[in-house]
Design brief:
alpha/beta, Spore Coat Polysaccharide Biosynthesis Protein SpsA, Chain A, eight-stranded mixed β-sheet, globular, disordered C terminus
């Protein structure tokens, strides 16, 4: 079931099977059409959300943000609505009332962005770990032969700041495991900072995905890779969260690694069509 609220003149709430949600847009939408829309799943990000919106708006009027909030008790949605009322910017809000959780929030965010018809759609975190200032470089890497770009810590020029040695080693070990099990060529398959051409996301079978958590990141990659679409990796600087607390814990991490084996059983290894291996 879905319910509509006062949305911007240009966009309305998408059909979101199984999710009751409200959608709203800016009081004064910019005249410049949306070219890039970043979906941002949030839960208790009141300390970070306004700063992220300011940095995104500073990139230019063609960049937009779709905040996908799971009824944060700290008032994250209220802050986004206040921002919409006072700024002429492509800032949109999807408030999910039911079917909550990180994986489903990601799915609903992508579905809403696809419904809006934006040509380039992406995802990033709200906690400051992903710098909006890296987006223009990622967008420049979205050449005609690429269907998407992964913001990567692990390619030349990419780096991490503020993380312990153990966390950096864990990231590398997880990526090695994912590459080995799923046969993906990407160095940073765990990165949640990425952009895609609209037509690439439109081909993802959103109704049939296994993921309901952070493993959505890897399931999308293996599906897209098997269609023959080429993704590029663009260097970013990943910064550890400064404000607020993360919802990621050891159980979520271990569950994400276990479900990678389920992806292997369903999709096989990530061999492109026509490949000899």
């Amino acid at each position: 079931m879905t319910r509509n609220s006062s949305a911007s003149p240009s966009y309305t709430l998408a059909p979101l099977p199984g999710t009751e949600a409200l959608f709203s847009g800016p009081s004064l939408p910019p005249a410049t059409p949306l070219a890039v829309l970043m979906t941002v799943p949030t839960y208790n990000e009141a300390e970070n959300i306004e700063g992220l919106l300011d940095r995104m708006v500073a990139l230019g009027p063609e960049y937009g943000v779709l905040v996908v909030d799971d009824r944060s008790p700290d008032g994250t949605s209220d802050l986004v609505r206040q921002y919409q009322s006072r700024r002429e910017a492509h800032v949109y809000l999807l408030e999910r009332r039911t079917n909550r959780g990180r994986g489903q929030a990601g799915i609903d965010g992508y579905r809403q962005a696809l419904f809006m018809g934006v040509p380039v759609i992406g995802e990033m975190d709200a906690d400051g770990s992903h710098a909006p200032e890296d987006l223009p470089g990622m967008r420049a890497s979205l050449t005609e032969e690429a269907g998407g770009v992964i913001g990567s810590r692990l390619v030349p020029g990419g780096r991490e700041e503020g993380r312990t040695l153990s966390r950096r080693l864990l990231t590398r070990a997880a990526n090695l495991y994912i590459r080995m099990v799923l046969g993906l060529p990407y160095r940073d398959a765990t990165s949640g900072f990425r952009i895609f051409r609209r037509e690439v996301l439109a081909a993802v079978p959103w109704d049939r995905l296994l993921s309901r958590g952070p493993s959505l990141l890897q399931e999308m990659l293996v599906i897209i890779h098997r269609t023959g679409v080429r993704l590029r990796e663009s260097p970013i600087t990943f910064r550890d969260r400064v404000l607020g607390s993360s919802t990621l814990n050891r159980k979520i991490l271990l569950d994400s690694l276990r479900i990678v084996l389920a992806f292997r059983r369903r999709y096989g290894r990530g061999v492109r069509p026509g490949s000899a291996s």
